User: What shape does this take?
Amino acid sequence: MKIAEWREKVLEVGCYEAISEMLKRIEKSKLNAYITVCKEEALKKAEEFDKGKLKGKLAGIPVAVKDNISTKGILTTCASKMLSNYKPVFDAHVVERLKEEGAIIIGKTNMDEFGMGTTTETSYYGVVRNPYDLNRVAGGSSGGSGAALVNDECVLSLGTDTGGSIRCPASFCGVYGLKPTYGLVSRYGLIPYANSLEQIGPMATCVEDLALLLEVISGKDERDSTNAGRCFSFSRVENKYKIGVIKEMSCNEDVMEKYEETLSELRKFYDIEYVSLQSMKFALAAYYVIAMSEASSNLARYDGVRYGYTIEKLESWRKFSSKVRAEGFGEEVKRRIMLGSYALSAGYYGKYYLKALKARTLIIEDFKRAFEKFDLLIAPTMPTVAFKIGELKDPLTMYLADVNTVPANLAGLPAMSIPIGFVNKLPVGLQAIANYFNENMLLNFAYDLERLNIAKVC
Ligand code: GLN
Assistant: This one.
């Protein structure tokens, strides 16, 4: 549901009634999109709106927030047993901004544990189901934020994207999702997985709504030292972009058919050429080495003393913290902590971590060259449509699914997934990547595609 449609509904029945209906829909839903539903708080805010007390750009709009984003006094679990009882004592920057603009936080969405995954199957709270086929995944790691949008279980949602976690569920659920330029949105209050790669970003069912949410969450915040201090604001420009189609980013036959159909549509309106970015072949390996290395360090804080899950005291500190971590973390998280520690260890640092950093530089340079010639680069967001639940049998096959999304994170570039229709009744997404802080161009391009009926949300 778009903001405009929500506002019409609120005019008709009032915000309290509209929110009550939404809460009922969530309760009955089979999607498992939420870990926590903020029932009482949401109804209280709706009442305030009806009394004319809630003001701002998002006044009375229900927004779903991914469960790795801190919400004061509200459970924030990262979909992990480790944080299953954790209630932050402060709000993330983006949550403060939502509240300042009058948004109603309807709940905290389900995700892969600590954002580690592409399907939400690593969640301690169970998989999120795809609204178009309940036997399939909604994508990950922000699966709940994608699925909730489709089933009208929220109007806007926030996801986080370390290696594709906004764009993947946007593609699998057929909605819009944008990973901003690194530094545009403050990460203050985002529970870190791999902080040199990740950004919080908006998800929505139309471009205008996506742009508005980005406006609200972007901006200066001194509490995140990587924050660029910039505010985003959407301005409409009509332009004939020069577009490069990235040769190295591919997909399977089903998706290819839809992708090529879209490319031939785009050729009618834009100047399109293929472009080769040779370093893309290093991206996946570099991403996983860097992401796991950072994860191994970031997740060291969960020792059973300061946060979350804990157990009775044991005879030694070593035994205590090992047991807490063995019981509190899921399989995928443990795998990444071990591999990341290995890549950072004295004998292997140069062979793996340093090598990955060098590959990262090559990728950044390749993009830089491409943007001298092109305004936008495009590719399929995901190489496939949504997977069947349980289809990905081993972790390496899952990692491969991120091949088209991780390069933008390694380079820190803004990238979005635009829904371009369906294959066998399952949504397909087109990925567009722009130069640093060129979100306005990305959104204008998506806006054009929406007007040309090339972009479609069901
Ligand atoms: N699938 C990727 C991973 O598991 C990306 C996850 C994300 O962006 N949070 O690392």
Summary: The mean pLDDT is 97. Residues 115-118, 141, 161-165, 193, 291, 402 surround glutamine (CB under 6 Å). The chain is about 40% helix and 15% strand.
